[in-house]
Amino acid sequence: MSGIVETIIIIGIALLIGFINDKNKPKEYYYENRIVTVYDKYQCPIYCKTDHYHYVYYDSTVVGHNQMCIDSSKIGERYKSPKK
């Protein structure tokens, strides 16, 4: 009986970790003609030419000079990557 309880606790902890990770990870959104990643720990510089979803802040939270920012009122729906 205690083996079942331990298994249920482990499954519960795993689900909780997955939920917290999903809530805290960077989120991708459609913005104008591209996809951007809203992230509070890193922000691409305006001159970033890397082929990726650029990391941005909302305009009200920009902290660095020459960093990418977006107008939060123009953000589109959340981007969901295609299933593999």
- Biggest β-sheet: count, sense, barrel? 5 strands, mixed
SSE class: alpha/beta
User: What percent of the residues sit in helical stretches (DSSP H or I)?
Assistant: 25-40%
Strand order of the largest sheet: 4-3-2-1-5
- The low-pLDDT segments are none
State the total count of DSSP E strands. 5
In terms of DSSP E residues, the strand content is: 25-35%
- Kindly report the average pLDDT value: 85
Our Rg estimate from Cα atoms comes to: 18 Å
The SSE order reads: HEEEEE
Shape: elongated
- SS field, number of helical segments: 1
Distance between the termini: 38 Å
Care to describe what's here?
This protein has 84 residues and is an alpha/beta fold. It is built from 1 helix and 5 strands, in the order H-E-E-E-E-E. Strand 1 and strand 2 form a beta hairpin. The protein starts with a helix and ends in a 6-residue tail after the last strand.
Looking at this protein, list some descriptive labels:
five-stranded mixed sheet, 84 residues, alpha/beta, 1 helix, 5 strands, elongated
Q: What is the structure about, briefly put?
A:
This protein has 84 residues and is α/β, with parallel strands linked by helices. It has one helix spanning 2-24; strands spanning 27-31, 34-38, 54-58, 69-70, 75-78.
Task: Describe the SSE topology.
Blueprint lengths: L1 H23 L2 E5 L2 E5 L15 E5 L10 E2 L4 E4 L6
Parallel strand pairs: 2-3, 3-4
Antiparallel strand pairs: 1-2, 1-5
